[in-house]
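--- STAGE predict ---
source: upstream dedup step, 1 unique chain passed
mode: sequence only
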Amino acid sequence: MKKLSDEQIQKMLEEQFDFDASPTGDHEKQADLKAYQLLFEALDHTPHYQLPDNFADQVALQATRKQESNEVFRQVMILAACIAGGIIISIGAMYWLDMAFLKNLMLLMGKIKWLLLFCLIILVFVQTCDWFLIIKKRFQRQ
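--- STAGE serialize ---
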């Protein structure tokens, strides 16, 4: 179907209606004429609202926030998977390994618990710095 201009479409619509029809004429034509008039009134009507000047900035900010929340969700899911994997591995180790070996392992971990805690704190600190210093700056540039 070929593309028609607005004037051509309006001319085609006007040719279908007899604007000089008497009010007692065909009710279907009167209803079509009324619908036609309502259509063009609605098209001529300008909306009463205006978009704010910073509309594009607001949309970009929402997109950035959505991307940041997706990144946080992804990191939380990775953390949850690591914790669940650690629990599953621990349960499997208790089931398959000798209890005497596990007892010796726990005694060793008890001796170096402060070193393990320090390493865990350093890991959390590095991940937090990565998030705030690198990832957030990347989102701000986009």
